[in-house]
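Chain A, query sequence.
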Amino acid sequence: MNFELVTIGTELLLGHTVDTNGAELGRALAEAGARLVRRTTVGDDPEAIATAVADALDRTGRVITTGGLGPTRDDMSKRVVADLYGWPLRFEETIWDDIVARFRRMGRQPAAANRGQAEIPEGAEILPNRWGTAPGLWLDGPPGLVIMLPGVPREMRMLLTTEVIPRLADRTGGTVIRSMVVRTTSIAESAVAERLEGLEDELAPLTLAYLPSIEGVDLRLTAWNLAPGRAALLLNAAADRLETTLAGHAYGRGEDDLAVLVLDRLRRQGLRVAVAESCTGGLLGGRITEVPGSSEVFAGGVVSYDDRLKISMLDVPPALLSAHGAVSEPVAAAMAAGVAARLETPVAVSITGIAGPSGATDTKPLGTVWIGYWHQGVATAVHRVFPGSRAEVRARAVQFALHGLLDRLGRGP
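Chain A, predicted structure.
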């Protein structure tokens, strides 16, 4: 069952409002066994709305609209769509009574413009809106099916959950479109594809999509129009195969976050960690402390942006800085060892690098980063050159540092 989405609102086109409804609808429809195949955004213009909805009906026969159901002059979706069906608007007294009662509870009186929200296309089914004044509408006729929902995210979400999805689930026969994400990091998209060559065809009837980001490459497996139990079985088996094939780089599923996994591993092993940062300026400590309960295992950190702090706070020998520079293997290792000693932790991580846009040399290009580790009484360091802007280099360095720490802690208890 394919649907198209038409989001209505000039504010969306101007970029003043971010469309979160589209993502919410896509996920919810998939869970009900329906598929969102196209999204179109138009402004508050009757001709544009009519064309977008009519074209979508011609292509798929099923459309969901969001927005344009309010009381103001730019809310014209209902009348436009009613005209496509040839259905006149009628005043629905029960809806008006609900609107009046809602305003009364807030100690106010509805404006005259609110009466327009009680006008309903003849032949449309009303989707009661207990969270706002604009009811949703279900229009099913010769042109096709149009489901009209408010643009206010909470109202849209509640109507979708309580009114729309149950109706669609009855039509799809209980099948679902379900996805599972396997998360990888510290490996390029092309390298992932090379490792998975030949495996993708074996995953059928599932499909596989590559979703690269600063944090790594997410692999989205999708089961299409299957019974829930079979979908779950196939997705879990396929995820297991991907994780085995990408061992050392696959670290979690769904929304798993490296910082959470690292802290959990530290907690299980009864260890505490400290960080020393230069080019990342506290971002690594920030990632860690975003996790509730991080204080159990995170001692703290030193942001040693200036080399004098590397010497005074981390006991980095001045001779190392003179001989190798701040962005180097021996300095990164010394920073990790120094912060571990200063904060009395058995585990530590350091980051020093050239995030740009200046500071590069012939031997140390932009994006050059050294990550140091102190673990089991040994200091080591790893070198990487990260692509991207200053912000991207810093974010990638933090992700790589967390992944390296997880590997050193091991995957066991």
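The chain has a mean pLDDT of 93. Residues 2 and 35 are 5 Å apart (CA to CA).
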